[in-house]
Every structure is written in structure tokens, then in C-alpha cells.
Design goal:
The strands form 2 sheets. Strands 8, 9, 10, 11, 12, 13, 14, 15 and 16 form a 9-stranded mixed sheet that branches. The protein is an alpha+beta fold and 304 residues long. It folds into 2 domains: 117 residues, Aminotransferase class 4, branched-chain amino acid transferase, N-terminal domain (D-amino Acid Aminotransferase, Chain A, domain 1), CATH 3.30.470.10; 160 residues, Alpha-Beta Barrel (D-amino Acid Aminotransferase, Chain A, domain 2). It has 8 helices and 17 strands. The protein binds 4'-deoxy-4'-aminopyridoxal-5'-phosphate. 4'-deoxy-4'-aminopyridoxal-5'-phosphate binds next to helix 6 and strand 14.
Length: 304
């Protein structure tokens, strides 16, 4: 990732990609408090547009607020910087990664005296769980690692330290030959994927698990609207792993994962074991939306 041409926005200006570096004694590298976003831009007929830029930036600032990290820039600057990065790298469609982290002024748990830095990178990134996964669905395994208890890490924050838990779960699942992990909460109820929210379909109704210990995904919120557009209501309920075993359909959502069908959980086929019809309809509408083909939702597209 580090050795390529292009530009990264760092602390207020564009710097050559290879020079966007930080010291090994960077506080956030040692203690895991950096807040970040994953954002996508798509190539629409009206040019490249960043999807739900405002909501992603709002969540970045929310994450910083939870960790009492003082952002050195306002939201408008961060939004403009993201557009600038897409333009400077001449990207038609891409993934963007804004990140705020503590610098190398000090060591020790206290963040007092550590400077907050902000960087924004962007690069082309295809289907996160594979192009075949988007079409045929993926195989998921329930993790032996529980999602953080709500009083251990703060689920509303997209903070690096949360992802140590995601990485444990993903390692376990992928080393056993599955595509992704599903995490349960500390009481055993379904929380989310390692980097995705989950939906299931049962008897024509779309359900999602309570998101107490899960990230409040922006794609998840988008799916609520798309489901309504298609005449479905999304119901929220506590969900067990066997609710998924006996679901008709299941799918993951996320900025990276987009809308990815889940065809199997713990070696049990979900429904027909393929992408289900309601999942297919939501997925098709999602790609219409992000690619600028739904004028009624154009306000979510921020043209660069
Ligand atoms: N949960 C986790 C743990 C994630 O990392 C992500 C990806 N950001 C999501 C859910 C989905 O969130 P979003 O749709 O906002 O990308």
C-alpha cells in the first residue's frame, strides 16, 4: 500500500503518497486510539460521487467526541479534503480512508500532550468479499470471540482498537476456510460481522439484530430506506444464531462489503443457499443508488 504514486492529504495539505509516513512511536500505533472512516466514491453518469460523505464525516466526529479527541479541522474541511484527494489521484471510483490519530509526542496511556493528526487516502478497491460473493453469497462462521461488551469498548465509535476483536474473529473464520465471521454479543445474541452489519429475511419480512454492541452502519441505514422504497419494513429484534440458520435469506452490509448475500452460516445453507430474491432486489437498488441511477436519492451523492 505504501509504495505507489499519488497523493495523500495529511494535516491540511496533499503530500506525495510515499511521504505520508509517521514515526514508530506514534501514540495511536501503540494504544489503538485512532478514529477512522471507510467511504466509497462511485463513477456515475454525472461524474465521480462520494456516497453519503456527510454522514461518514459526522460519524468520524462522533467517534472523536466519544474518545475526547479534539479534531483539529472542521467537518467542511474534511469533506472538501476528501473530494480533493479523489480529484488529485484522478480516481473514478475508489475507497476513501480518513483517519485521525495521536502523534509521537509522548508515550503512556494518557493522551494529554499528544497532537491529533488527520490523514485521508483513497485508492481503487473492488468487491471486499469478492465479486463472486456479491453474486452467489458468502460462507460465514459464528466466531468463538464475542463482540465487545457495550461497557468495554464504545460501539458507536469507529475506533482502531475495536478491530483487534474483528481481526481475531476474521482470522479464525478465514483460516477455517470461511469467507467472514459473525460475532455474537456477550449474552450470545447476534451482533454483526467482523466489518459488516447483518440483515435476514423470513416470510417476506426483513429483520436486523439490535445494534447495541454493533456499529451503526451507514449502509445499514441506507438499506432501511431502500427496503421502504421496495415496500418492505425492516424490523429490529434480538436475534439468535439459529434465527439465521432458519432464515429464508441473509445479507451483510457495509461500505466495503456493500450488500453481500450470506448463503451459509456454520455449514447450514440459508434458504436455498444462494442469493435470495429480496436480497437481490435490495442489492440491485443499492447499486442503482450509488451509481447515480436513483434521482430521488441524489442528495446522498456528493460530486467531486
Ligand atoms: N460493523 C463494523 C464492525 C464495520 O467495520 C462496518 C464497516 N464500517 C460496518 C459494521 C458497516 O458500517 P458502514 O455501513 O457504515 O460501512
Amino acid at each position: 500500500m505504501a509504495d505507489r504514486d499519488g497523493f495523500i492529504w495529511m494535516d491540511g495539505k496533499l503530500v506525495p503518497w510515499r511521504e505520508a509516513t509517521t514515526h514508530v512511536l506514534t501514540h495511536s500505533l501503540h494504544y489503538g486510539v485512532s478514529v477512522f472512516e471507510g467511504v466509497r466514491a462511485y463513477n456515475t453518469d454525472r461524474g465521480t460521487a462520494i456516497f453519503r460523505l456527510k454522514e461518514h464525516t459526522d460519524r468520524l466526529f462522533t467517534s472523536a467526541h466519544i474518545y475526547m479527541m479534539k479534531m483539529p479541522y472542521d467537518k467542511e474541511t474534511i469533506n472538501e479534503a476528501q473530494k480533493e484527494v479523489v480529484r488529485a489521484n484522478k480516481l473514478e471510483s475508489c475507497y476513501l480512508r480518513p483517519i485521525a490519530f495521536y502523534g509521537s509526542e509522548k508515550m503512556g496511556i494518557s493522551t494529554r500532550g499528544a497532537t491529533v493528526h488527520v490523514a485521508i487516502a483513497a485508492w481503487p478497491w473492488g468487491a471486499y468479499l469478492g465479486a463472486e460473493g456479491l453474486e452467489k453469497g458468502i460462507r460465514v462462521k459464528t466466531s468463538s470471540f464475542a463482540r465487545h461488551h457495550v461497557n468495554v469498548t464504545m460501539a458507536r465509535a469507529k475506533v482502531a482498537s475495536t478491530y483487534a476483536n474483528s481481526i481475531l474473529a476474521n482470522l479464525e473464520a478465514t483460516q477455517d476456510g470461511y469467507d467472514e465471521a459473525l460475532l455474537l454479543d456477550t449474552e450470545g445474541f447476534v451482533a454483526e460481522g467482523a466489518g459488516e452489519n447483518l440483515f435476514i429475511v423470513k416470510n417476506g419480512v426483513i429483520y436486523e439484530p439490535e445494534i447495541a454492541s454493533a456499529l451503526t452502519g451507514i449502509t445499514r441505514d441506507t438499506v432501511h430506506t431502500l427496503a421502504r422504497d421496495l415496500g418492505y419494513e425492516v424490523k429490529t429484534r434480538r436475534m439468535t444464531r439459529d434465527d439465521i440458520y432458519i432464515a429464508d435469506e441473509a445479507f451483510f452490509t457495509g461500505t466495503a462489503a456493500e450488500v453481500t448475500p450470506v448463503r451459509e452460516l456454520d455449514n447450514r445453507a440459508i434458504g436455498e443457499g444462494t442469493r435470495g430474491p429480496i436480497t437481490a432486489a435490495i442489492q440491485a437498488r443499492f447499486f442503482d443508488l450509488v451509481n447515480g441511477r436513483l434521482p430521488e436519492h441524489d442528495a446522498w451523492l456528493h460530486y467531486v
